[in-house]
Write a structure and sequence with these properties.
By secondary structure, this protein is of the alpha/beta class. The protein folds into two domains: 117 residues, no CATH class; 252 residues, no CATH class. Helices cover 38% and strands 13% of the residues. The chain contains 18 helices and eleven strands. The strands form two sheets. An eight-stranded mixed β-sheet has the order 2-1-3-7-8-9-10-11. It has a three-stranded antiparallel β-sheet with strand order 4-5-6, with helices on one face. Helix 7 crosses helix 17 and helix 15 runs antiparallel to helix 16. The protein is globular. It starts with 7 loop residues before the first helix and ends in an 8-residue tail after the last helix. 38% of the residues are buried.
Amino acid sequence: MSEIFCPLPWLGYAIRNNGDIRVCCHANQGPTRGILLKNDASPFRYNDSIDETRNSEMLKDIRRTILSGKWHSECIRCEREFKSGLFSRNYNESVMWEPYLTEDQAINLTDEDGAIDTSKIPLNYFDLRFGNICNLRCRMCYPTDSSGWYKEYEEVWQTNIYTDTIGKVKIIKDGKKFIAEGNPYDWYKEKTFWNELSKYKSQMSLLYIVGGEPMIVNEHFDFLEDIDTEVAKHIQIEYNTNLTVIPKRAVAIWKKFKQIRFGVSIDGYGKINDYIRWPSKFSTIEKNLRTLDNVDANYKIWITYTISVYNILHLPDFIIWKLKQNFNKVNTKRWHPLITVHPVHRPLHLNIKIFSKESKDIIKQKLMEGITKIHKTIDEYNSPHPEKSKKVASKIINGYIQYMYQDDYSEYIPRFWEFNNKLDKIRGCNLYDYIPELEGLI
C-alpha cells in the first residue's frame, strides 16, 4: 500500500451540512473544498443520483492522481498531516477498508480516465452530515456547522453575512431566533433524499453520521429504525458527537446493528473543555461517556481531541487523565490505545502555528516533559498495551511539535485577540480564568 492511496474516492459518498456532495470532509481544506461539480459547474446535491456523483470529473481526476503516486490538490490536508508525521486520514482509511478494497484492486477496477463501473465496487461508506443544528457553540466552529453560532457570529464580526460553498448566506431574525435565510441546512428533511439513500442499504458497511450534533437529528433515527434487522446486522454506525445527550430511543434502535461507534469530541477535561466547547458541562459529558462505557452492547468508543491554540499545552495532561480512568471501551484497542487527535487547520487564528518562535520553544519543552509524564503514567496504571501506548503518545506529541514549527502564522495573532476578546465579552468569561497557562504565550 502506498503512502498516498486512499479508498474513499472509490467506495465513499460524502454530504456536506448544506447538502452539497464532496470527496470527503478533509477535502474541505482543498482549493475547491472538494465539491463535486456537474458539467454546468453546479454542485452535485443530496437529491441527485448517487451513481452519477461517483463518476464526477473531480472523483475521476482524484483517482487518476492517486494511482499515479501523487497527492491531489484537494487532498492537501492529508498531505500536510502525513508530512508532519501525523496519522493522516488516508492512511487510517486505507487500513480500515483494506478488506473491502486494496490499492491493487483499485488499479484493476479503474479505467484510464479514472472512471469506475459502480456495479463492481459497492458503496460501502456514507459520510452524512445532517444540517447544522447543534446545541453547542465551539470556539473553532462556524455557522455552517452549528446553528447556535448565528447570533454570536453577527456580534463578533459585525456582519450578518457569511460564506458557504453554496455562496453568501444571510443571518436573519425569526421572532426570537436567529436563522439562515432560506434554511439551506434543512435539506435532510426532504423525502427524496431518504428514498435515494434507501436504495443502497444492502451495500452499506459503515454510516458515518455527523451534524451539527447528530444525536438531536430525529430524522436519521427514523431512517435507522426502518432498516431491516437482517440488513442492519451487517452495518456499523459511527457518530461524531459532543455526547451532551443520549436519546432514549437511540439505545433500542442501535441494538440491531453490527456495531455502534462513537467518536466523542472532547477538547480537555473540566473547565478547559467547557471554555472551548461552550456551553457544554464536562460533568455531563463524562457521565454520558461512562454510561456508554458500561453498557453491555457492541459499542466502540474513542475520544477525538481537536488541537488548537487553546489546548495544545493541555494535551499531555488530557492523555494522562484518560489513562487514569480505566475505561472498559474507550480507546482500549491495541492500535488505538490513547486518544484520536486532529489539528485545527482553520480558522487560521486558532491554528497552533500562530505562536511566535519563542512561544513555540516554550511549548515544545513543556510537551517533551509531558511525554515523560505520560510514559510514567502508562507504567503506573498498567496500560494493557504499554509499549504501543508509549510509542503512540510520543508520535502524537512529536508530530504536533513538528506541525507547529512547519509554518509561521504569527500574523494572525491580532485576529486571535480580536475574536477571543469579543467572544469572551459576549459570553461573560475570560480566557485566563479557564486556561491560565496561556498567559504570556500569545
